[in-house]
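JOB MANIFEST
job_type = single_chain_structure
chain_count = 1
residues = 386
[input]
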Amino acid sequence: MTSNSFTELLDVMNRDDLAEVGGSHNQKGVEFQRHWAVMRMFELEAAGVKDFLFLFEAIQDVAIVDSSTSPTTICVYQIKKKDRKEWTWTDLTALHQPKDPNKPSGGGKTKVKPLTDIQNSPIGKLYATIHAFKELQSTGRFVSNAGFDLQLADGSNAATSLPCALSALSAYHLDLLSKGLETFHKTGTPVPDLSRIHLERVFLSVDDPGTYVIGLVHKFLEQRSLRHAGQARSLVESLLAKIGPLGAKTATCNTFKDMKNQRGYSKSEFTGALGMLESMPDLNEHLETWLNQLTQEGMGFMEITAIRIAAASIFRRQVMGTRSSDEEKLVRACDAWLTIHSDPTELRPFFQAAYDDLQSAHPSIKKHELHAYVALRAIKKCVDQT
């Protein structure tokens, strides 16, 4: 079952007819998609999901598989921003607007579009992809910052509802949609199951998605590990930097392992990032205390700012697990230096002594970067002793 699932994932990924031609994102669209993915990871973590694997630009915009090792289900997502107005029936399906039998007919005639037009529409592409899966149980979700101007069977409108399945549409929309999606099926096969595709509006700003996601992660950390809540921004930036390149890779994947390495981000990687955060002291608070002391001792504002920026970069690389061998050597050198130097009464001479002793063995390191390493390793040493 597992090997068949792996093979099926690769087959669907490599099918040219399921690729999203013309579906590229501008920079705002890319940022919207990436922030949504990070938000979804935290939602799944908060819900207690045991495993997941995010695949970026492999099968539609994002696909989430329930396991990195034994996949049984997949949810395929189209993540689309919209700058103005709500999504209309025609936007989503490329079909003509069907007549509402409960309303009197107008004077004009509706121009009927070919049912096959749906095959190049957002809903058509999403349906074709989930329909391609036989081994894996598949569902699809069309996610956007904009609502959906669609009539539902209960008389309400999808624009004001919670996420809803296409099966909840009004009867006259449902009839036309089913006929359109039947063009994907061979003659005599079952009617399309429209409960497998949902429309979902998310309240994520296109212009500033970061503020909302950082706030969400801050709240998550307040509940999970209060002393790390102040690091929400750094954690989000680290995750965005990690998943960003995954959607830009174009190399052909020949194995499931290739797919995971080139396009995937797993629950274990996400847990590792959280675990790294848990294992670290609340560096921001302690680092600010040290930087304030350095300011009082006469260190310039620009140098203080450079140390703060360097410390943030060090933290991001540690969370991402991308520290180089040279960086690891520098960390060990800082730790060794700290073990033979007593608790300082003044920080600025202490930092200068560290730079004088360590710079020759690490000539490429800049002064403010080395100061950042010394500060962070010294703070960790203090916390480890408590």
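[summary]
The mean pLDDT is 88.
The first helix runs from residue 2 to 13.
exit_status = 0
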